Amino acid sequence: MRTLVVAEKPSVARDIARVLGARERAEGCLQGGDWTVTWALGHLVAQCEPEEIDPRYKRWRAQDLPILPERIPLKVIRKTAAQFRVVKRLMNDAQTARIVCATDAGREGELIFRYIYEMAGCTRPVQRLWISSMTDEAIREGFASLRPSQAYDALYASAACRAQADWLVGMNLSRAFTLRYGVPLSVGRVQTPTLQMLVRRRLEIDAFVPQQYWTVQADFGDYTGQWMDPAGGDGHIDRAERAREIAAAVRGRAGVVTACAREAGSEPPPLLYDLTSLQRDANALLGFTAERTLRAAQALYERDKLLTYPRTDSRYLPRDMAARVQAAIHALPEAYAPLRARLPQTLPQTRRVFDDAKVSDHHAIVPTGRRADASALPPDEARVFDLVARRLLAAFLPAHTYETTRVITQVDGHAFVSTGRVVTQSGWKDACLQPRKRAQQAAPLPALREGDARTVRSARVKEDRTRPPREHTDASILREMEQAGRRIEDEALRESMKDSGLGTPATRAATIERLIHMGYAARKGRSLVATPKGVRLIEAAPEAIASPETTGRWERELARIARGEADGARFLSGIARMTERMTRYAAQEAPDVAFEPEAPKGRRAGGAKRLDLACPACGRGRITENERAFGCSRWREGCAFTVWKDCCRRAGGPELTEKLLRAVMEKGRLAGSTGALTWDGRQVGFEPRRD
Questions:
Q1: Fewer CB near the terminus (10 Å): N or C of the chain?
Q2: Is 137 contained in some domain?
Q3: Rounded-to-integer distance, Cα 341 and Cα 346, Å
Q4: How far is CA 648 from the centre of its chain?
Q5: pLDDT, tens digit (0-9, with 9 covering 90-100), for 110-145
Q6: Are 7 and 129 in a shared domain?
Q7: The pLDDT of residue 277 is above 90
Q8: Do 542 and 509 have their domain in common?
Q9: How far is CA 569 from CA 74, 150, 165, in A?
Q10: 644-668 pLDDT per residue, tens
Q11: Which strand (E) or helix (H) includes residue 225?
Q12: Residues 501 and 636 in one domain
């Protein structure tokens, strides 16, 4: 009798097969001894599309929504059907006594295997391989400690709930909003709240009005100071004349130090990396997108065996890993020797590194201990490995300490503030890369005491403007997704709230890329910017689906289901009720938002019809017609002119056609048997006939 091992990818299957001694090639698998190792190709099985459940759903119609099947049936993905047949045959082979699930050790990996197992109609007993490293030693240890598949039933329940929730929301709301606005729209449980974050930032920037201000800086010879507003504030002066008056009043005058305060400060070492924090740093320090970082980290895990499992949400290690971490540090390349020499002989068991209570399915990302030749790695992988290695070393270096000094110098009734900072111990910052454009650090101040006298050698007026918020980057949007929009700076506090994030570390990069693919967002250099289409979608979408906080609460509930603390059926019932409300909203309450006409998928681009009518709103564009509305060709430039074809239906009037629109715009009033269409220069109305 044989044991069948099912891995998620061929590369992982080959590594497992080598360790198990299964070297004989066969169709879609490797064999040897009592082992057969086969693989999926990612997902082999998926949920059916609506039209595959019932042919009537092939045509998108508002009256068919919402589509709420009691159970969403599964299907074999056509593209990888051949490999599914191999896995199914092996699962049900008479010689197969048991199966080992060796898909990725996480929520999605569990779903991939369970779907295949169900679709294959298999009943063989299953054990689970759960490892965080692809080294030979880790694989052997994993097979020595296999657990029954039932131990992961709660994780599967969470994965299945996530998949069903995404199906219910995505399939129904994408159809509902596409039908409402006549352009292809994709609405998702995670992607739409993520888009809202980008839109919110774009609107903040668009609405920002810069304010001009002036500052006065006095030069005291061996230090400088900025004028302070006696009423408090940041020293910004709203009139140039006032700033010049202050500068003239103090120039050449004697001053005296009236206050000198010194304060010691420190910054503890940063937490280890989870995937999201690694992606943020790689974006800020290296300019990598989130997807690029994930690809490099995954290659370092699967192919190079240099990093532990990257798709983790934990930033801590279990206490029993202390010896392995020490060995991993000693195995780092020689380039890290100077930093390694500064570590204590025995690593301290600090709770900022080792904390069993804060380790989830996987621990933080750290080097495996396999010796690495950085020069032999592809550039992206070498740079990501360097970030992880430096972060591990930094975790055991001393705190970064400094002393800040704040001095007040009075000159003829005007106060000037000076700040200085002296690093007393560089500590962990010696190990970490620093941003290229760091904020200007406060220079050290001379040894000053209260009563010291200085003369103002010069006084300079500087003109400046307030600046708008910065556009989002991968780093900043990942931070927002991690905490569902909560702007929390303290790392430890963010860690305690990680369950309320949007998506998971493994899916956030894909969500960003999907927004770009759908045309809702675009990259401009390192910035992520919402497009006009993205802005309009958020205008149309209700808060219940667009709110990051709401979706964060759903994600937290999925995490509770995975821990066996919540009921999946209750969660899905709530998703179904919300889907019903949102489809009604799209049909009856959604606002009139003007989307630029688009050709449906599969049709020629440029399907929107342009009429030879000038736009009455801006006077420069031409009126265009799509399936649902008439709009302006200058929509991208901000013209919001829209006339919906069904705008008169509720009042008992006809659906507008090009002919009716032309006639009513020309005549101003168009009488018919049921009433009269009216035109006020911007909109069409209907007055029912009263006999």
A1: C
A2: yes
A3: 12
A4: 42
A5: 999 999 999 999 999 999 999 888 888 889 999 999
A6: yes
A7: yes
A8: yes
A9: 19, 19, 11
A10: 787 776 566 788 888 888 888 888 8
A11: strand 224-227
A12: no
